[in-house]
TrEMBL record:
Keyword Membrane: yes
Keywords, ordered alphabetically: Membrane, Transmembrane, Transmembrane helix
A GO term from the CC aspect: membrane
Domain of life: Eukaryota
Keyword Transmembrane helix listed: yes
Protein name per Swiss-Prot or TrEMBL: Sugar phosphate transporter domain-containing protein
Organism encoding this protein: Pleuronectes platessa (European plaice)
Segments passing through the bilayer: 12-33, 40-61, 67-88
Membrane topology: Multi-pass membrane protein
PROSITE patterns for the chain: PROKAR_LIPOPROTEIN
Subcellular location: Membrane
Length: 120
């Protein structure tokens, strides 16, 4: 149980734990802000890029990764596939919205903050 954990009396552990909690809050808040100012699709693309960065940083700085070319190439193929999927989804969605707007004769302009759109 967490209550019986002996590390709660260790100052370094408590500091690192609280810092981890604060960083988790900042991460979640930044994701909410990203979704507010952008579309959910943009947030997912940014999330995919973040996951790639975290994976490669973890490989080189984490210390517990046993390097082998087969594993590294496999991870790189996996990361490339995830990024390609996000990019294809993003460009397909963007072109569909533009095509629908052009087809219906509507003009969509964003306000200066990027939060809203004016449709004519």
């Amino acid at each position: 149980m967490a209550v019986k954990f002996e590390g709660w009396f260790n100052g370094t552990f408590v500091f690192c734990f609280l810092l981890s909690c604060i960083m988790g809050f900042v991460l979640m808040y930044s994701i909410v802000l990203c979704s507010y100012y952008n579309s959910a699709l943009t947030t997912s693309v940014v999330g995919a890029i973040k996951n790639v960065a975290v994976a490669y940083i973890g490989i080189f700085l984490g210390g517990d990764y046993l390097f082998s070319w087969t594993n590294f190439i496999g991870l790189s193929i996996c990361m490339s596939g995830g990024l390609a999927y996000s990019f294809i989804t993003f460009t397909t969605k963007s072109s569909q919205v533009k095509a629908e707007a052009k087809e219906s004769g509507t003009v969509i302009t964003l306000d200066p903050t990027g939060r809203g759109a004016t449709i004519f």
